[in-house]
Specification:
The protein is 79% helix and 0% strand. It has 509 residues and is mostly helical. It has one domain: Sodium/glucose cotransporter (Up-down Bundle), CATH 1.20.1730. The longest helix is centred in the middle third of the chain and has 53 residues.
Length: 509
């Protein structure tokens, strides 16, 4: 999903923040330093506010709706919003909003059904990780085996995802400030690792909320700058837009039928991602109460839709200002290079850093929690940063090493692995929070089948038309429930003759 984001760094940033503009570099550097100070301050505050554990896992964090909504929104918003959606709007016009409409539908359905249920089960089971919820109620042996199997899936997939974030950060420092190739990757990764280690889980929540605030302000500035640039062009702006084609400003150029299929496909993917990404689910687990968690829906959806719609529309209308872009995904960086002064460019630097950092930070914490509590099976009641810091540092260093050996093509392949988490974990999560029929075998069968179908779907080249998380989820649900039903029938069938024999013996006596 962030493959497109690397384009911004490799090309656009070198154009926008070139070393030939020292005043821009100095202003950008100052704003970047202020952003870092705020980030480290929020992380320290999170460490200071981490409550002593009372034995209830993440529910001890007692997050209010604002922290749940803003931190979740920031964690869910990757660099794809700043490049992929801009490019989508630029290339397809208003029909590029199909993605955001589908995501809105998926988010509404997701928040209507799941977050409060996830929070309730997390409180009942004293869960500290996603796998604590999925494996609750299983036999001791199955609980340990399944917990580690899902933990390995999560760690492997998220390690690839955060490694790609380090690559994005490398390009960010190279383009914005002229860092060398050998120092930019470790420098960026070290910044995130240090403040993540400092603040732990609650520090991640606080910094994500701060970075969401930066995104809100920067997005408003971006749209205002586009408005004034378009206004200065007058009729020429609309003439350039008209050259994009008669359907460019048509929301449904292919008709309502094809539009509905696209929207539903994205909605299904949204639900899968919401259930299957540990760095998102842990936000819902940590809400103060089920009702307080549910109340965060409008904050989360409002933030996500605000940023997604704004960047898509930016792409649509920047075509009237810059009609000849060779790479539409560079629209944001090229626009600021052409029209913005040092101050606004510095704000864009802070915005892009915050976007990468929020995702990297939340995923790094999710990896550390999973490695410590699911793989090493440490006591999962305590969320104190002193408990998580060793695994946070190890996860950061390992993923930094992986990133140093990756190139763009491998990065794009690895990033698709995040869909495997949704395909494998989401069906088991659904069965648990709805208290459907489950067994030791059905849970592991659900996970395995979901991942297998997602891999086959991707290998068959169907992922571009419909994200592989959707088919994987459907397969996982069907297989899991079928296995549970067959086992239940076999158990009841075996129990009936025994009960009949017992009654017969009892009457004979």
């Amino acid at each position: 999903m962030d493959t497109e984001f690397s384009v911004l760094y490799t090309k656009g940033f070198r154009q926008t923040f070139g070393w030939a503009v020292p005043s821009t570099s100095h202003t950008s550097a100052l704003i970047f330093v202020l952003t870092l100070c705020g980030t480290f301050g929020a992380s320290w505050l999170g460490r200071h506010h981490t409550p002593p554990s009372a034995g209830h896992g993440l529910s001890d964090q007692r997050l209010n709706r604002w922290l749940v909504g803003l931190s979740g929104g920031a964690a869910a918003t990757s660099g794809f919003v700043l490049t992929g959606l801009v490019g989508l709007g630029y290339a397809f016009g208003l029909s590029g909003l199909h993605y955001t409409i589908g995501w809105l539908l998926g988010d509404v359905l997701f928040w209507w059904v799941f977050p409060q249920r996830i929070n309730r089960v997390a409180r009942e089971t004293s869960a500290a990780t996603v796998t604590d919820i999925v494996t609750s109620g299983l036999s001791p042996h199955a609980h340990k085996v399944t917990k580690r199997a899902i933990g390995i899936l999560i760690v492997v997939c998220l390690a690839g995802y955060v490694s790609a974030q380090w690559l994005a950060g490398e390009k960010f420092l190279q383009g914005a400030f002229g860092f060398g190739a050998k120092t930019s990757l470790p420098a960026f990764a070290a910044l995130i690792i240090v403040y993540t280690t400092l603040g732990g889980f609650r520090g991640s929540i606080y910094t994500d909320a701060l970075q969401a605030g930066i995104r809100i302000v920067a997005t408003a500035i971006v749209m205002a700058a586009l408005y004034f640039a378009a206004k200065s062009l007058g009729a020429e702006f609309w003439r350039r837009l008209s050259l994009a084609g008669p359907d460019y400003l048509n929301l449904v150029p292919g008709g309502w039928g094809s539009t509905a299929l696209i929207v539903l496909g994205w909605a299904a993917s949204c639900i899968g991602f919401g259930l299957g990404q540990p760095h998102m689910v842990t936000r819902y687990m940590a809400g103060d109460t089920p009702s307080e968690t549910r109340a965060a829906w409008w904050i989360y959806i409002g933030f996500v839709q605000y940023t997604q719609i704004a960047m898509t529309l930016f792409g649509v209308f920047v075509r009237g200002v810059l009609p000849d872009l060779t790479d539409p995904e560079e629209g944001l960086s090229v626009f600021f290079h052409s029209f913005a002064g040092p101050l606004l460019t510095g704000i864009l630097v802070a915005d892009i850093f915050s976007t990468i950092a929020a995702t990297s930070n939340s995923i790094l914490i999710a990896i550390a929690q999973t490695a410590a509590y699911d793989l090493l099976l440490k006591p999962s009641r305590n969320q104190d940063p002193k408990t998580l810091w060793p695994m946070t540092v190890i996860a950061g260093l390992v993923t930094m090493a992986i990133a140093s050996m990756m190139h763009a093509k491998i990065s794009s392949i690895v990033l698709s692995m995040v869909s495997l988490v949704g395909a494998g974990v989401a069906p088991a999560m659904i069965a648990r929070v709805f208290e459907w029929r489950r067994s030791d075998l059905s849970v592991i069968a659900s996970v395995v089948s979901g991942v297998a179908v997602a891999l086959l779907w991707k290998a068959g080249g169907l992922g571009d038309a419909f994200n592989e998380a959707g088919p994987g989820m459907i397969a996982g649900l069907l297989v899991g429930q079928t296995v549970a039903a067959l086992q239940s029938r076999a158990t009841s069938g075996a129990a009936d003759p025994a009960e009949a024999q017992k009654r017969s013996m009892s009457s004979g006596e």
